[in-house]
Structures are given as C-alpha cells and as structure tokens.
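Form 7-S
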Amino acid sequence: MRSTPTAASSPCIPSCLALNSESLSSRRSQAAFSLDSPVTVIKGISGVRAGALRSLGIESPRDLLAHYPRRYLDMSRVSTCADARISDSCTVVGTVYEVKVKRPKNLVLTEITINDGTGTFIVTCFRQPWWGSKLSRGSRIAVSGTVEFNFGFKRMKNPLIEVIEDPAQEVTGAIVPVHPASEKLPANTMRKLVSAALDMSTGLEDPLPLDLRTRYRLMSRASALRCIHFPRTMEESAAARRRLAYEEVLMLELHLMRSHVAQAAREQALAHVVNGPCCAALRQAIPFELTLEQQDAVSDILGHMSQPLAMHHMLLGDVGTGKTAVAAFALAAVADSGTQALMMAPTEVLARQYARSLGAWFDAAGISWGVLTGSTDSDARAALLDRLSSGELSVLFGTHALIEPEVQPRCCSLVVIDEQQRFGVAQRNALIEKGRAADVLSLTATPIPRSLALATYGDMTLSYLRSKPHEHAATATKVLSYSQIGEAYEAARNALDAGRQVYVVCPLVGQSHSQKDGAASERRNDSPDSRSSQEGEQYVYASIAIEDVADFQNDDTRAAIEQARFLEQKIFCGYQVGVLHGRMKGPEKQAAMADFAEGRTQVLVATTVIEVGVDVPNATVMVIQDADRFGLAQLHQLRGRVGRGQAAGEVFLVSGSKAPLALERLSAMERISDGFELAEYDLSLRREGDILGNRQHGTSTLKLVNVVRDAALIEAAHADARALLDADPDLNQPEHRALRYEVARAFPEQAQRKED
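Output:
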C-alpha cells in the first residue's frame, strides 16, 4: 500500500526498536525538547515562512503536529487510462512518453504525457519545472488526482506524482490529506512541513497510560499522528482521530479537575447541615410539590454540601423548570448551618424577582434575607452591609454589586451564581473569594447537552431539570418572511385587545446586515469555524451576530425609539409602547421592565435580549425581527418569556434571509420545543463551543472532538480523568508523568498557578 511521497519513509505503524532504558529516555527528552522549539528548527522554514505559519497559530513543530487535515482526497482507487471516469478522483499508473516544459508569459508549465497500454493521459503541473529533469521517456509513474477532459485527452492538473523505481512494486493508490493552508503556504507545502515535524517526533513518549490504551484499543500517539496526517486507508484516519480525540478530552478534563482539586486541597470546606429546621420549614412553605427531577437535584446538591469538600456544582434547567426552587434548599441549608450565602444575578430585575419569589418562603421558614443592587440607596445599603458583616443576614441576593470590596460577610459558605456564563471569570472569582472554601452552585437556563457540559465544565458535578413543575399553556412558534409580518402584527393586536401584552424584539436596530456581519466576524475571527469559512468552506453560522449580551453593545438608541414610535402610531394604536435598549442606564432599564411587568405599558420594544428569567405571565405574543441573526439557544430563551401563564403563547420569527440553510435552522424552532433537543440539533449543525457564544475554559483545544458524535468518548474520558486523579491527585506516579507534562504544556496557566 502506497503512502504519499512526503511520508513515504515513515510507515504508519513503526517497527519495534531495541533500545536500553537510558538511550530511550534520552531520545524521548530530545524529541520533546525539539517539538517545543521554534518552528524555524525545521529545515526550509525561513523567517517569512515562519510568519505565515504564525498567522495560522503555528509557532513550534508541536503546533504543526496538531495542524490536522480538514479533509482527505481518497484516490486509493487505481484505474487504467481507459477506465478513468471524468470528474472522479483516482490513481493512474503509466509510462512517460514525453515531458515538455513550457513558459507562456510569466507562467511555467510542465506537461507530462503517459500511456498504460489502454490509452493516453496528459498531466499538467504548474510551477514545477523540476519534473523536466527528473522524468524521462520510459519512466514509470503513478499520478493521483481528479480526472478532466480537454482538447481530446483525459487530463489531471497538479496531481500527486510518485516515481516508481521498482518495476515489481504494486501501486494501490493514495489518500491525500488536505491541511488548512494559506496563499503563502499552499497545501503541498503544508504536507511537507507536517512530514518534517513528524520525523522530529520519533521517540516521543506516549502520554496515555498503557492500561487506557489497552482498554479502548487505542493506537500509540506516534502511530495516530502518522495516520491522521498521512493515512493509508480511511479506516486508519478514523482510528487515529479516535485516539487523538480521546487524548484531547482526557487532558482537558484533567486540567479542569486538577484546578478544582488543588483549590479544595488548600482549605477544608464546611460540612453543611442539610436536614435542619429551615430546610424542613421551607418544604412546608413551598405551595407545590417538587417534581422528581427537582427532588433528585436537591438531593444531589445537599449531598455535596454535607461533605467537607468544596462543592462545585452546576444546575442546568430548561426555561421554566424551577431551578430557583431547587437553589432555595441550598440557601436554607446555609441558614441551618449558621453561615451565610450570596446569590448573584446578571440583572437587577432578576435579583429583585428572587426576592419576590423566594422572600415569602424564607420569611415562613425563618430565613433572613436582603437585596443589594446598584440602585439600592445609601442608607439601605449601609444597613444591609452591617447585617451581613455581623452575621445577622443569612442570604443576600444581588447583582454585580455583591463583588464590591465593601461587601464583607461574616462567614460565607455558599455562593450561587445565576446564568453564570453571563459573568466573566474575574467576576465569578471575586464573588467566590467572599467566602473561605465556599461551596459554589451555578445555575443556567442555556440548554447545554451533557456531552458539551462535561467538555466545558468538567470540573463541576451536574444536575439536570428537563420537565416543568407546573403545566403551562403551549407556545406555538411560526417562521415568517417580512412580506408576512402583518400576520404577526395581527396576532399581537388580537392579544392586546384581549388584555394581554406583547414583546417586539428588534436586534441591532439601525444597523445594516453588512454591519452586523462585520461585527460578528470581528468577534469570531479566531474561531476554527471562521478560519474554515476563509478557506472557502461555506459555514451557515458564519454571519450570525446575536450570540450573547456583548453583541448588543452597538445598538442604535435613536433607531430603537423611532421603531417604538412607529409601532405605537401605526400598528398598535391606542396602546402604550415602551422601549428597552442596551445604552439605557440601570434604573432606566428597571423602570421600563417594571412598567411592562405591572401593565402600564402593553408593548415592549427591546433591542437587547429580554432579561433572562423575567416572569410576566400576561405576555403572550413575541415578534422577533431578523430572527436569523440569533443563535438557536438565544431564540429558545426568548421564546420562554411568553406563555408563562394560563394563556397560550405565540412566537413569530420574522426573517429577511433567503438562504435555505438559515430558514431550515429557524424551522427547527417550529417543530422542537424541548431546549435540550434543540441544543443537540444546534450542535449537529455548528461546532462544539458555539452554542455558548464564546468558548470557555480550554474547549478551544478540542480540535478533533464533536460533542454530538463523540458523546460516549467524552463520558469515558471524564470518568477516566476522575479515576486517575482519585488514585494519583498530582499525577506523580511514573506511568502518569508524561501525561502530567502534556497537561501542563497544554494549559500553562495552571502550571504557573501551582508554582506560585
């Protein structure tokens, strides 16, 4: 079986070498050192070429090894000249009849005519004049490429060419890798550079322990790198991808878990009282029966809180599944333990909603509480901070105001962060540091499938809520073109006439589609998907602008106000129309939402994402303009703002797009109501981190993993990482040292923290 010329001297499965332990160790150390050297150590890489590689994120030979092919050209089928079909990819073996080097204008063409007894084939090579001296009449060659037909002959342009020196050699075709390339670094050059990096990796120690490789029948790392870059069969490339994908996930999980283990080892956490009188009173105060899922989540969380190890737990629940009620029991356990809890919300509206929904229950259970936001007046603020510092206050709800230095609880043992992905790492850490080895409970309504959650939040334990505790009327979703928007406005008018309320969401009002696309491209130009788009692979999500709150920072205030005025005067005559946009100050946003929640305005025109968790049961219709600008997760969360009462909800997704893929994506909203099922669909179209907007932690290191296709692999790697750290927390055992080195190299910030 023939490999490509660039890898011909390096078979996929290396032969065994008899080396003593000293020479083996020396070779491994030398290989590791060489791979982490500047990429210029590779012959043929000058300063200019190094700069071109740097633009692709390649600065060392090791980076070249991780520059995996994005696809393969399967030319393993060997055909005769007569049987080679037009437009097919194949390999043809023949004898050279003639070689001509032509120089029309500023171009150099080498034309090679071959014959195999069944017909004649012409090969054209651009800017490769060396074939004129390397080949002569009678040379036997194999050419692999796509067959064309021009001027009466079958032809190939710039095929892969191999000179066959041995007349007895059997030619079986080739699999040609196509690596991400650039104008200065064409694909054939990338193949040569990757091959050179592979030669430097000879002798590199395999970081995966032997027992894991044996258990899952994984090839060695050296074999996997050879086979993913230069496979001899497509089966080899698949096996190599499986091995390297498992390694990627295992190292990420170890990184996430070791960070948490190291933090937990520094200080012992409080073992909370989880069966005290406050928890019991809370169960009596809640006016409904918890669902089985809620009961299981409460048991999970309280079980972790009862241990003397810091909890790091995430509660994932679809819109309306009752996450707040579950979190209430964690807060009650804090009161039973005589300590304090801080619960941070992304908005003031949501923080005050906690007070309304949980305050009465806590009053009945004898749990003291308060609310601190940016708009809290100075006297009330001072009183709250005094009660907190004295220990009189058990639970303090709030916004970013909670992370201010003046907020000093006497003994904080639990931090709850709602919609934690809407806070930066520094903000979350600032809140967690308010306590000593405090337990952390994160809540999110973003539907994240388990495989993605493990890959993104592998250091956390997880609980899921999928069913809603109360039966709500169904919400119908319909996709409309702008020519049909009158249908949406008619439904909205009917709802208003019936005493209901309406949301109209206008993303990035006042900006053209090109402006929106430009903003999205600028924010995402470092993602693997945008690079694929630059390489010519059309990616349906490349121009989506609305992924998270940051995407609304440039909305046009004047255009938003004009849109609200137009709707009030022309569409919803006789009804009060309010407006909510990203440049409003906190108190103004609070007032706009309060006016809508209390019915003083009947229509709310919003250019920003409607606040997560806001509950206005009387709102039954939502019209989302430019719906194709949103990710599906954001559309699903918006949809959850209507139909929260007894009346059915209606959501109209209005789009000006004519792209079939964009409309097909929106149509999923019509047929899928379950957030997690929708997330799975979203991920099947997109790539692993994009449902969350910005990639988090180290998930950008997952170059080969697809969280839908590789769910079982992620589960296995997560469990294996946990078992490894349970047995060897610092990975100090001899069989784990290579793995420890690789994790530290892949995530240097953790290694630096451990040294500090």
